[in-house]
Amino acid sequence: MMYWVRHVTAYAYEQPVDLAAHVLHLKPRALAGQRVVRASIRCLPAPDHVTETHDHFGNAATRIYLARPHTQFEVTAEALVAVDYAPPPEAAWTLPWEQVAALAAAGGAHAQASEFAFGSTQAPALAAAGEYMRPSFTPGRPILAALLDLLGRMARDFTFQAGVTGVSTPVAEVLRLRRGVCQDFTHLMLAGMRAFGLPGRYVSGYIRTRPPPGQQRRRGADQSHAWVGAWLGPEHGWVDLDPTNNIIVKDEHVTVAWGRDFSDVSPLRGVILGGGAHRLQVSVDLEPEQTG
Amino acid sequence: MLDEMVDGGRQIRPHWRSLIGAIGGLGKPQLEERAQRLELAAEEDGAASMLPGGRDAASWRCDPVPLPITAQEFAALEAGLAQRARLMEALLADLYGPQDVLREGLVPPVLVHGNPTFLRPLRHGLNPPRRPLLHLYSAELIRCADGIWRVATDRTGLVSGLGVAQENRRLMGQAMPEAFRAVKPRSLSTFTDLWQDALQRLGPGGGVPAIALLTPGHSSPHWFEHVVLSREINAALVEPGDLTVRGGALFLKTLSGLQPVDVLVSRVEPDALDPLEFPGADAAAGVPGLLDAARHARLTVVNAPGAALVESPGFMAFTPALCRYLLGEEPLLEELPTRCMPAGSGPPEGPGPWLLRPAMDGVAGGVLRSRADWQPLSEQAGGWAVTDWQEPSAAPCFSGKGLSPMPIALRMFALHFEGGWHAMPGGMARVLEPGAQYAGRLSGGGWSKDVWVLAEDEAPILGPGPQSLPALPIRRNAGALPSRVADNLFWLGRYVERLDRSSRLVRATLSRLRRGRPMPREMAELNALARCLLEAGLIEAEAMPSGAATTGLSASIGRAARPDGAVGQLQARIAGMTGLVRDRLTGDMHATFTQSLRAARAAAETTGPGLEDLSRAMVANLRFASAVAGVASENMVRGGAWLFLELGRRLERAQAVLAEIGLVLDVPPARVEASLRLILELCDSVITYRSRYLSVLQPAPVLDLVLADPSNPRGLAFQLAAMQSALAEVAGVPADALADEAASLRQGAEALIHDVLAARDQSLAATALPSRLSAMADALGALSDAITRRYFALLPAQRVLTLDSEEAAEVTRA
Questions:
Q1: Are both B448 and B503 inside the same structural domain?
Q2: ipTM
Q3: Looking at the complex, does the CB of residue B276 fall below 8 Å from at least one CB of chain A?
Q4: Are A277 and B248 a contacting pair at CB < 8 A?
Q5: B189: domain range?
Q6: pTM above the 0.90 mark?
Q7: CB burial readout B120-130, b (16+ within 10 A) else e
């Protein structure tokens, strides 16, 4: 599946901003199941200085610096991406979840996966989240079976509702409210997995805006989306699960970046001098590209 | 417990003999006196002097008996230290690079991936990190009963203690000359020279790099060390607020614009360096883009941010294996055996005691636990590092009771230079006082010893000669004075002058109150003085004299002079400001400032309720102000620092002269003569007037002397002329708008005198002046604001911009 992505973020400031520095995670990663044909980022006003690096997790990070007063700031990220994720393994054939946790704790050859078993600021290893997960994680259950069961329970127990949570709402609060958005459900699931010592990563990206014919519109479209990458052990590696839509990631998602939680991969984060109050507008389009 | 000085046969060890002979030869009273001298020296121009206000804050004190180390022993320690530094560097390069040691299972993942000091923004991408990551390394060792020094703590982050070691050596030179005659310790200056050379070579481009030492500021417990070190290595002492990143490079905000910084010796916790990279950091504190500048080799930061990772005590459990894997060498230096243990663990093998430290917190204090009082280890992220502890060796230390052996820990330092590691031929020995817990962190104070590496006859000269650098261009301008420092000096000048002025007003009032029942003429003067005191915020409105009753006035002045009163608060503010500009004052200047200020504060504290006592306290303030003026005039280069101190003083005095003359002249024309007399007194111009005009008091000559005569240092015109030339100097051009403003105020003063002189009734003209004087005071206030805007760059606080619009709305509402 070939997708055309367009992600626009626009700030309007009440007073001029004298100096600004922004970190952008807006260029999709190249992956085994994802080919980035082209990707670009445009800024208005044009930055005075730009740097491009890859971060610790291998994501592309763009840093831009504005040294002249401005009252508006707009970033447009566009990309053409071909996605075709490998089908997930048969759930029953995956390792018992306890064994995955033991492999992660041992580190060694799997040290890179085990990094994601440790709690982070926004997705700590939270005992309460583990308790919620417990019924799905019966002893010896294959890990993917347990995770899919969890996904189904989350879809029943939690309500997708924008506006009740913010960027910094703690997961314990999400667990209590039983509602939130994709970011909250992702953090909550990660917090539970980490309570069991299971590696899980926060994946940031997009989901297609219009559903395939005959299907329901997905939640989390029109904006940045987030889901969970779960490590199933050395044989099957990582499989992505979307708790907001109760689906395994296959060909409706485009991956931009991953980290331990949102703060590692925030699409846009800045430090500004001046500016006063600001208004923010975000729009995302992910449309299938007609090939030919 | 091993004794450093005495061997098992109760004999003094050979390398202690001449030293202890020289020290013992002094006798106890002399030694007592030397110990006091060391403490006094620290107080006058050393660590304690950083705290001009009080002495209660912790500071380092130096023991009069140094710790000698033989050349042979030092050579072995240096080789071990150098190897361990190479190991730390290799370990850091791996952990911030390919992470092979994790893949090989040599280190448990939690020590790295679960470690808050593993800074992911420093591990960038697919590129290996810039080497070296480590520039300075320090280890703390204890000597065990078997005579072997073993490492107890590694320091790879903010390596502190170097400044204390340097300062100890300097103080010992002053207080213990006999000891230096008896034995010859190797000089520390070779190490400092080498450090300077090393920094010079760290510049990202060619040429002479600009070096700055970054400090969290005056409130840091290590502030003193930062001041000492910045001088030792000739680095500008800067705070995060002084810096900005433009076009991908780091700059210092100075009076003459942005000056590049190429090498940053950072003493700020790395996660507070750059709010762009660390979401949890205080957005207002750091420098956005600083790490990105370092990442792209536009700037060198030492030690590399994130280097503190490997000082986590948990790594000590794996260092021998890491040394073999990363260096292919057997460790030369032993460490105290350490293992990592999870929460809930029982005691390890052996009788103990053990030193318990959180495995991932290199600075938390340790606790000693024996097998008998072992309790299951508490919950701790990453578990505990449990170290076999031994009683450290003891060295003779001087306390009031004489010399007695005390346990010590030896802190050594090593520097990376041209691919190799060099140990400082010395260090600091911490005296572990009874009851104190051993902790890795060096606090802001304690008891320490100078460490003497005994020189052999041919002590080798350390390192190669200095790098040949291009010749520096001659500079005579104020150049790189950071705006913040200029701001502080300006306000120091203003406060010192305000204290002087307040004390003069109070003294003039007291001299009249002390005469008992005042005559009507004196009552008029008291009323005028009370108006001035009220305007200066020294008394309350209710204290204004009514009729002939002055008891309210006396009581109110008494309150103002107390330590918590208006005058006392002024003293406290000056003390604070003096601390803030400490790095701009020489030792002598600083000693003069602090000693005379302490005397003035002591006078305020001990003052009784009597008017006599109050008067004496005011005189102490005046002495302080003239000491500052004298030091500023005789010891300060006429550059940026002096100019801003001068500007502050002159501006404050000019404002006070205008305010007081205006208030005193606010009388009916018939009473003008008393006002003129008071004006001359307040402006300290009685004698000058008398010598010019004898005893005839007339408005025009009096006002000319205090307002328009440029030769009277207590008059207005003198202040304006001084401001005019200082402003032109700071601006670097003769035709400066601010300097012109000062000049036009001077012309206004001339015009005033001209009008009074031309008036048919001078008294009438003089008493009509207050409104014009008040307009001039407003113009002066506007000039002060203009100076602030131009030079002190009051920028709004920087803040984080997220994708959460709700949060932004909250910020705006707050």
A1: no
A2: 0.93
A3: yes
A4: no
A5: 14-50+60-336+390-453
A6: no
A7: bbbbbbeeebb
